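Hello forum,

I keep getting stuck at the same step: I have a sequence, I want structure tokens, and every attempt I make locally crashes halfway through. Rather than fight my setup again tonight, could one of you with a working pipeline run this one for me? It's a single chain of 185 residues.
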Amino acid sequence: MKRNLYAVSAASVVLMLGGPVAAAAAATADTARTAPAAAARVDVTAEAAIAAALKAHPGVVESVDRDGSVWHVDVISKDGKHAELEVDSAGGAVSKENQDDDDGDDRAPLLAAKVTAAEAAKAALAAHAGQVWSVNWDDDDDNGKRYWDVEVKTADGKTQNVHVDPASGKVIASNSDADDNDDDT
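Reply #2:
Ran it on my machine without issues. Output:
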């Protein structure tokens, strides 16, 4: 009887001391199992979304905008077809939302631009470190000028609106969402 009491007591001590260790080991094992899955999730950049969209529908990117977990990319092909594509920001999968014929006349300056949307994004990032959130072709300026309008989210939480010249690739204007005026410097 005494011997059974000792065995039960010893087992209890082992379980009491081993329980937290076993729980910690199980938590470590769970973390190790889920870590590769989390590491495998890659956040697709604007530049990568542009590349994926152009691979699926060759042409010239007119705009790319991040909306939650999806990039919306508008591409104009050389034959005038306009495609609205979605690129998954987690894996880069491309799906076509809409495609239509475009008259092409109002797109001529975009198609003739020497600087692409991806190059404009790169120029904006060189001027303001952060993450590109959108790139849009803009030819509706009050002065009749055309430029790439790039939105960069910076590490400090601000949004920089950067205008990139479509001929030279140089930043021609920039302002922060914290600025109260439109005087671009």
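Confidence is low (pLDDT under 50) at residues 3-8, 10-17, 19-42, 180-185. If your local run keeps crashing, start a new thread with the error log.
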